[in-house]
Structure to design on (701 residues):
DNA sequence: GAATCGTCTGTTTTT
DNA sequence: CAGACGATTC
């Protein structure tokens, strides 16, 4: 490997071997390359791949890192998220905490249901809002490593304690347990701690600014013996404080790890100087910053385009038209274009605009495939195949399709289960073979046969499991359970849901092929922990995502949309100056993803909560000096300037040709905020489209 | 126990 | 405006 292509700071980082090192890596400063080369360097020196642990922020980033090392050095290095790492450790060693190693992992939805259940048991009512709030508080407590006894609010502690007990009875862990229990395990069990301290000699943590207290503590525990910690991060890109992240961890690094060295990477290789300096100017509005000014030897580039539309529809139209224009004029591949927004709900207007112009797009994140109802139903069935104790999966599947076992019957069963001190599914097994197993429990004939069928179904699947592939097991499950009967209840969505299930089977088959030791348990775990951002798309497509999901990515052309007060910065951040600073960092992260072209857009009215709300441009727009900006809004003279190159106008009834939509007829010619605009009827698609003359490039036929 | 209809309530961000 | 939730009826 040649280090010629590295600058002196990068080289120093790559060549660092022993002791703690903090790399303050600004946006676009070649962080990925440094991390990869440094691992390669360790391997060159004879460090074994199994001695190295790399922790990344997402599973996707972890997969990429593994891939790079495999290609570069043909070596298998362990790279995972903190949560996956926790799961790995706990699967091996959680026995010391009195749990079983085949625990299920509950996502937020599952956890909330269980918590709601606990609240009902404690006679605290089953209000969903309360459950949601409580779950958040318990999550915060766990991320701060507070036990049920340790929390200040005693009534919270009571619920928290009950919830932990319930989880244990279900043989399940929630997301936060993967960190909380791992730390607890290592803190309380000397031999286990030593084992893991000895396992990895070199530990690398990416996105260190977004570690919370539990993750920080886990890091400290793991590196305690060898002190070979290589942490990479950028306090200006800390955007997860609401998840307990403390960017102060990065500022305290030298205190926490005595003898630590710090290297600053401040040369940016990604963006044009216009984009970079505008981003610098924005982030400088944050007080108390660790001073770091990114610079670039690159060209000035084009100015950042600002567009302020009348409403979100117009904003989206502008973006769609501009994408077509830029893709055509500058031959930018669709994969190299992205739209970032603050909230998932904003994607809709852009989807509509892109859809109507036949621009391929994919949404990264958002409603995950695995969060869909039908997928979770199937996965719950599979979890029950593994475990008798998984209450949440039982409750989810027992009446799918209808088996006559509604809430009232389930209450009775739950009560009987508590009385007999049996997991509810075990109780059902007993009842299936002996209807009089519980004294005084009366089920109707229909209910009893429904319950018996359900138990038999699970047993059949358990028997079949060893001889079947996962996708075959799913097929079996669908067939035997008559799950499709349930889908038929909603004919509107049935086709979609069926296709999703087919896709799940496809993914299962694919996953099983790729894996050396595929197990059902591992399959379920990976699906639960998988970040929503791991979609594989075959066709080139524009990427739509939240600002949070944009972290770590880069695109030639970026649209940062919805830059309005109360949206970005979000209204919920207003009461707290620190939250506003985080919103500013979020905006900064978005801007610095752009290589060549950056668009900042907003709209004057936005349809929210059922009505049009007037919006004000974001303060962040005003914090960027105008010398980096050019205005493309309808009211600006800029638009006329662009319009001068318009082709001669067409008149109504004239035949025209569009490179994408084909032959069409002008229905109407008029002036809109985009200048000369046509409504054109296209024969091919039998639709009328509104096109701006200056973008659409219509030819006469 | 299930289906249907109205009412209400709400939108940050995610491993 | 949606989607979730609860009350009412079958």
């Amino acid at each position: 490997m040649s280090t010629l292509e590295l600058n002196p700071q990068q080289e120093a980082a790559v060549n660092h071997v022993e002791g703690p090192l903090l790399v303050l890596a600004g946006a676009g400063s070649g962080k990925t390359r440094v991390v990869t080369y440094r691992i390669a360097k360790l391997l060159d020196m004879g460090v074994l791949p199994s001695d190295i642990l790399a922790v990344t922020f997402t599973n996707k980033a972890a997969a990429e890192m593994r891939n790079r090392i495999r290609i570069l050095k043909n070596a298998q290095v362990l790279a995972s998220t903190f949560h996956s790492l926790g799961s790995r450790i706990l699967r091996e060693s959680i026995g010391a905490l009195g749990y079983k190693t085949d625990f299920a992992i509950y996502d937020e939805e599952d956890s909330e249901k269980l918590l709601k259940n606990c609240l009902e048991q404690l006679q605290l009512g089953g209000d969903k809002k309360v459950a949601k709030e409580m779950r958040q508080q318990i999550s915060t407590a766990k991320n701060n490593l507070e036990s049920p006894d340790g929390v200040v609010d005693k009534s919270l502690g009571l619920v928290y304690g009950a919830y932990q007990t319930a989880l244990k009875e279900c043989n399940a862990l929630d997301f936060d347990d993967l960190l909380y229990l791992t730390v607890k395990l290592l803190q309380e069990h000397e031999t286990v701690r030593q084992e893991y301290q000895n396992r990895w000699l070199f530990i690398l943590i990416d996105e260190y600014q977004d570690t919370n207290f539990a993750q920080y503590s886990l890091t400290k525990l793991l590196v305690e013996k060898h002190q070979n910690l290589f942490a990479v991060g950028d306090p200006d890109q800390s955007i997860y404080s609401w998840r307990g992240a403390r960017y102060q961890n990065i500022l305290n690094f030298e205190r926490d790890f005595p003898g630590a060295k710090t290297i600053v990477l401040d040369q940016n290789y990604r963006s044009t100087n216009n984009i970079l300096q505008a981003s610098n100017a924005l982030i400088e509005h944050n007080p108390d910053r660790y001073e770091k000014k990114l610079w670039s030897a690159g060209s000035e580039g084009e100015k950042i385009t600002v567009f302020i539309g009348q409403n979100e529809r117009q904003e989206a139209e502008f973006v769609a038209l501009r994408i077509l224009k830029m893709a055509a004029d500058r031959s930018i591949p669709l994969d190299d274009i992205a739209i970032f927004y603050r909230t998932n709900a904003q994607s809709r207007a852009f989807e509509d605009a892109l859809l109507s112009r036949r621009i391929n797009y994919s949404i990264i994140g958002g409603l995950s495939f695995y969060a869909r109802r039908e997928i979770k139903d199937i996965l719950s069935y599979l979890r029950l195949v593994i475990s008798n104790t998984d209450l949440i999966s039982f409750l989810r599947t027992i009446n799918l399709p209808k088996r006559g076992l509604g809430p009232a019957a389930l209450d009775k069963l739950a009560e009987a289960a508590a009385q007999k001190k049996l997991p509810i599914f075990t109780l059902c097994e007993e009842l299936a073979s002996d209807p009089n197993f519980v004294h005084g429990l009366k089920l109707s004939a229909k209910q009893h046969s429904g319950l018996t069928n359900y138990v038999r179904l699970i047993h059949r699947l358990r028997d079949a499991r060893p001889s079947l592939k996962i996708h075959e097991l799913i097929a079996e499950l669908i067939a035997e359970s008559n799950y499709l009967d349930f889908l038929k209840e909603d004919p509107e969505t049935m086709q979609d849901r069926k296709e999703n299930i087919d896709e799940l089977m496809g993914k299962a088959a694919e996953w099983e092929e790729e894996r050396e030791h595929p197990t059902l348990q591992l399959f379920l775990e990976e699906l639960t922990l998988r970040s929503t951002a791991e979609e594989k798309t075959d066709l080139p497509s524009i990427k739509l995502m939240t600002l949070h999901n944009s972290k770590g990515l880069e695109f030639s052309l970026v649209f940062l949309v919805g830059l309005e007060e109360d949206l970005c910065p979000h209204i919920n951040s207003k009461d707290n100056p620190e939250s506003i600073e985080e919103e500013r960092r979020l905006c900064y992260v978005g801007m610095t993803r752009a290589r060549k072209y950056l668009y900042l857009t907003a709209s004057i009215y936005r349809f929210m909560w059922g009505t049009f709300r007037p919006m004000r441009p974001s303060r962040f727009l005003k914090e960027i000096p105008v010398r980096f900006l050019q205005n493309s809004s309808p009211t600006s003279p800029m638009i006329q300037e662009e319009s001068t190159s318009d082709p001669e106008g067409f008149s109504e009834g004239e035949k025209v040709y569009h490179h994408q939509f084909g032959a069409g007829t002008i229905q109407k010619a008029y002036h809109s905020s985009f200048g000369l605009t046509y409504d054109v009827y296209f024969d091919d698609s039998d639709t009328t489209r509104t096109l701006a003359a200056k973008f659409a490039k219509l030819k006469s036929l």
